[in-house]
Amino acid sequence: MTGLRAALATLLLLLPTLTLAERIRIKDLVEFDGVRGNELVGYGLVVGLNGTGDGLRNSPFTEEIMLNMLERLGVNVTGEQFRPRNVAAVFVTATLPPFARSGSQIDVTVSAIGDASSLLGGTLVMTPLNAADGEIYAVAQGSILAGGVSVAGEAASVVQGVPTAGVIPSGARIEREVDFALSSLSRVRLALREPDFTTAGRIEEAINAAFGRPVAVMLDSGTIELDVAATRATSTAHALGRIENLPVTPERRARVVVDQRSGTIVMGEDVRISRVAVAQGGLTLRVEERPIAVQPNPFSDGETIVLPRSAAAIEEDPRPGLAEVSPGTSLSEVITGLNALGVAPRDMIDILKSIKAAGALHADFVVR
């Protein structure tokens, strides 16, 4: 836990610096209306496994697809006892990116659906990939790169990673294009990934300032509409290319995210705590801010600066202790004080839960 506390303390020291200089491109904050990918899925067969395939007695669908494939290739196996252990039925998934053209290649993910123990070394046989409309948009085939390993003996076995799933880089070739004409749009909506009125207003101002006239209007906290004709751009693509790299400083809701399994606490700089007292066993916590002003030397060109000074103390008492936090104290100051005093991360989480339940923690509290 010592390394975790040190990393957390370093992160808290960096938060104010990062926030002041934070300017994000519009393309990283929004999604352009119509510019999206499409999910593809297919059902196929992996061959060439070293005895780690499906047991055909327990996975009859594997035998069915294997017989159908052999018959399409002109091999008649009707009535034959054909039960190999080097084949496995799999689901093949991929994402068709926007504006993908016929002949280009995309990555695919292959996952076993039967009782195969490993796909390591297998080869996916030609598998059509369908979209939600039932049409075939790509065909996948190739050697699988599995992400794990499985070793078994007569009395014991060891599995590391997930050998029943793998990927095929550039394993599918696109055969059909999505019918979408971006140039036909006279208006394009920009959808914020995290809706916020202040961020949407800043994006609107940045776009209008770039074109020198009102071409964008904020519809709500999550949508800005761009009038392509008013931009006088050559095409819709030119207009989007001109605005996507404009820098904007986003605003975010105050949020605290804790992971109880690892004891990780992540928070934003804007999280604040009202005056609150917390009793936890024999723990007494005090956090106090005592900023001091430093004056320059007489007749010098210096200026007065204010140096922050925080005082944190913790006491152990056999009787139940009382922790009091001054109003306006930031959560990062509380966590820094607890961290410096060696309080375990899980104890911090319990304290934060109590403060949130009392209504003194002004932020979204997310527990994972």
How many separate structural domains? 3
Q: Walk across the major sheet and give the strand order.
A: 3-4-5-11-7-6
Q: Which regions contain 5 or more consecutive residues with pLDDT less than 50? A: 1-21
The assigned structural class equals alpha+beta
Rg from C-alpha positions? 30 Å
Q: What's the mean pLDDT score? A: 79
- The termini sit apart by 19 Å
Helix content range: 10-25%
Proportion of residues in extended strands: 35-45%
> Helical element count?
7
Biggest sheet details? 6 strands, antiparallel, barrel
Name the shape in a single word.
flat
Number of strands: 27
Secondary structure elements and their pairing?
Layout: H1 2-20, E1 24-25, E2 30-32, E3 38-47, H2 60-72, E4 87-96, E5 105-112, E6 123-130, E7 136-143, E8 145-146, E9 149-152, E10 157-160, E11 165-174, E12 187-192, H3 197-211, E13 216-220, E14 223-227, H4 228-231, H5 236-243, E15 247-248, E16 255-259, E17 264-267, E18 272-273, E19 276-278, E20 283-289, E21 292-294, E22 305-307, E23 310-316, E24 323-325, E25 329-330, H6 331-340, H7 345-357, E26 361-362, E27 364-367
Parallel strand pairs: 16-27, 20-24
Antiparallel strand pairs: 1-15, 2-12, 3-4, 3-6, 4-5, 5-11, 6-7, 7-11, 8-11, 9-10, 12-14, 13-14, 16-17, 18-25, 18-26, 19-24, 20-23, 21-22
Helix pairs in contact: 1-6
